[in-house]
Structures are given as C-alpha cells and as structure tokens.
Amino acid sequence: MAELLRLLLNVSEKAANVARVCRQEAPLFELLVQEKKGAEKNKKFIKDFKTLADVIIQEMIRHDVCAQFPELNGFVHGEESNTFENGLGESVTVTVCAQEEDTMALLAKVLDGDQTAASLLTNAIHQKLQLRDEKAESLQISLNPDDVAIWIDPIDGTSQYIEGKDEEEPDEGFCPSGLPCALVLIGVYLRATGQPVMGVINQPFKCKDPMGHGWTGQHFWGVSYGDVNISSFTQRSLQKRDHLSVLLSSSEKQAVKDALASIPNSTLMYASGAGYKILCVIQGLVDMYVLSEGTTYKWDSCAPHALLRALGGGVSDLNECVRSHVNGNDGPRPELTYHEPHGGSKGVDRWANRGGVIAYLDSSVIDKAAAALAGKI
User: Fold this and answer.
1) Which position among 13, 59, 64, 79 bears the catalytic label?
2) Class of 244-373 per CATH?
3) Of 252, 293, 300, 320, which is the active-site residue?
4) By Cβ atoms counted within 10 A, which residue in 80, 135, 139, 164 is the most buried?
5) Is-catalytic flag, 79?
C-alpha cells in the first residue's frame, strides 16, 4: 500500500500538470469544454460541464494505476464518462494508450486535428514524473491492493476551473472562489466495508510563479487503516474554542444558513468546490463544512474523508446526525461509506451523498450543528 500511495502522489502531480497545460491557451481551452447531459448531470447546476482535462486526467490515473496494480482493474472509478464529442459531431472514447503516438492520434481526433495541442497534452500524460515525499516513502502498511478500490474526481470544482479566475490563495485563510478551489482528488476505500483508508489531494493552482511561468501547486495525503493514522499534516491537538466557524456553499438553503447563524459565537463562511471546502476543514481554517442537500458524490468526499480520518476527524451524513440528536443517541455518528450505490437510482444519483454532509476535525461540533438544524432539514 505504500507503493500505491507513492504511485497516487505521482499520478496526482501528472494530473495537476495536465490541468495547468489545458489552461495555458484560452483558444485551446474553449475546445475542451462540453456540457454534461441527462444522467451525467449534477442537478444542483443549471449547466454542468465536463472538460477534456477531466476525462484525460481520469483515464490517465486509471491507466497508470492498473498498469502497476493489475488487481485494481475494474475497481478504479471516476466521475466522468470518457466519451467526448469533437467539433465535427463525432463521439470519441478517450483512453490513454500504451504508446504515446496512439494517445496523440486519439487526442488529435478529439481536438479536430490540432496536432500542437494534442502533442502538448500527450507529453503531459506520458511524462515520467517522481514526486518526492519522504514521509510517504517511509510509510509501512500491510493492506492488500486486492482489498481496495479507488474513487477519482479528476477536477473537483470544474466550474471554478472553467471560469479560471486568477485569484491566488492567501497565505492564511482561503479563496472563496477561483482556480485554487479546483482540486485533483484520489480516494482509496475498502471494497468490503466502504471505509476510506487513503486519500491524495493535489491543488494545481496554489499560487502564481513570480517569474511569470504560470501556476505552481501543492499536494496533501493521509492514510487511516487499523492502528495507522498518518498524513502529510502535522498531527494537531484540538483546542476547545468558544467561536465556531461554519463553511457553506453560497447556494445553501436560507433556512439552513439562518439556523447555523443562530449558534452562539458562530460565523458563516462560503467557498466553492466540495473537495476544497473539506480541505479547509483539514487545514484547520474552519471548524466544519455543512451541506444539507444530496448534491455531492462519493468521488467528491472519499479522498478528503481519508485525510480527515487520519487526523481524528471524519465526514458524516448530516441527516443521520440530526436524526440521532433528535432521538437522543449519544454514540459516534456513522461516517460516509463508498462501496454501495443507491438502489433504484440512475446515473450519478446512484453515488450521491443523499443525506448531505458534515465534515469536521472535532466531533463535538456535530451536536452543535445538529441541535441548530433539528426541524430545519
């Protein structure tokens, strides 16, 4: 599993490079965006887009992981359909081929014969990249790849990626919107129980290079399995605070906003991207992230959930937490799992976090939120 973590760190950095390459030329990027239809669409958004960058990143990760770990064939799942329509109306199934020239030929077909763009993307996909992380390289964990599966969100926060606002993330605090909210998320979970055990988050657009060479990024990882809880973050001791900061989506229901605002000494804050909001909790920038609707999915939460578990936190079903509070159940709240689709649903809805989510480092904040939201959701 240490080998798998090292591989996921490397492919996450390759993915970040692909995301940056696809944003370098505006005319190129305009060719890459396609609206999702039907069952692929997130009902939260009037328009829901996928980009060729999303599809390429997903298929590149799947290709590289299965090449090194054949036992994961069929167990690497992603958000996106890998079918893309080019400017001539032809449907092209995007895959990463064993040979660079075959990948380039396929991408050239998607890009209406643009050989320069296809070459640029192919080079990023097939580069040999080693992301050095001494802490990850020293990790020892006995877990068989046969026992796990993977969720990929190739670019979480696609709308922010498409809009491409160049606002940089401050040294302290977070960006409410813009390119820093777009993340590559790779989460590993147990096939038998759905428990998240490993997560890699890559933030391709952390800050702009002062020399004018585009953006530079950063990565994070965490492992939580058995007695092993380790991450790229320093383990923090939780300090009881009178103040409570709650991170929300700007589209959250007003009744939920009002209820959470009624918690004494609370502050409501807003940011884009489900993965980015959970990352803000991981970094200790806010106390919790709350979403009342089922508009996030397993690929959004799996990777950051594993990081939170490594730090002693978690991600739970919000409705279940409120129900438990109302019923006077004092036990630990059940956390989200990732292995079973919802029966009777189609498309992306099979993998929705239907009951909403609450992400936290300190589980004591759950009861504060649940008490405020009782009867409101």
Assistant:
1) 79
2) alpha beta
3) 300
4) 80
5) yes
If DSSP codes are grouped into helix, strand and coil, which group holds residue 206? strand
Using CA atoms, how far apart are residues 85 and 32, in angstroms rounded to an integer? 10
The one-letter code for the residue type at 166 is D
Dist. CA 123–CA 289, nearest whole Å: 38
User: What is the C-alpha end-to-end distance of the chain, expressed in Å?
Assistant: 40
More confident residue, 128 or 360: 360
Q: Which residue is catalytic, options 54, 169, 317, 320?
A: 54
How do residues 129-183 score in pLDDT, each as one tens digit? Answer: 888 888 888 888 888 999 999 999 999 998 888 887 777 777 667 889 999 999 9
Q: Is 347 exposed, middle or buried (0-12, 13-18, 19+ CB in 10 A)?
A: middle
155 is known as an active-site residue: yes
Phi first, then psi: what are they for 221, rounded to 5°? -150, 160
Alpha-carbon gap, residue 377 to 258, rounded angstroms: 12
Is residue 349 part of the annotated active site? The answer reads no
Beta strands in 182-261 (DSSP E): 183-190, 196-208, 215-225, 228-231, 244-248
**Which secondary structure element, helix H or strand E, spans residue 278, and what is its range?**
helix 274-282
Q: Tell me the residue type at 61.
A: I
Q: Which of 158, 186, 282, 377 is catalytic?
A: 158
pLDDT digits (tens, 9 = 90+) for 263-295: 999 999 999 999 999 999 999 999 999 999 999
Distance set, CA 99 to CA 124, 241, 246 (Å): 13, 55, 48
Query: What distance lies between CA 276 and its chain's CA centroid?
Result: 8
CB 272 within 8 A of CB 280: no
Residue 360's alpha-carbon distances to 210, 345, 368, in angstroms, are 35, 28, 12
Q: Which helix (H) or strand (E) holds 78?
A: strand 76-78
Residues 275 and 153 sit within 8 Å (Cβ to Cβ): yes
**Domain-by-domain residue ranges, the chain?**
244-373
> What is the value of pTM for the model shown?
0.92
- Give the span between the Cα atoms of 303 and 222, in whole angstroms: 8
SS (H, E, C) 173-200: CCCCCCHHHCEEEEEEEECCCCCEEEEE
The active-site residue, picked from 59, 64, 80, 156, is: 156
Residue 46 is among the residues annotated as catalytic for this protein: no
pLDDT of residue 340: 95
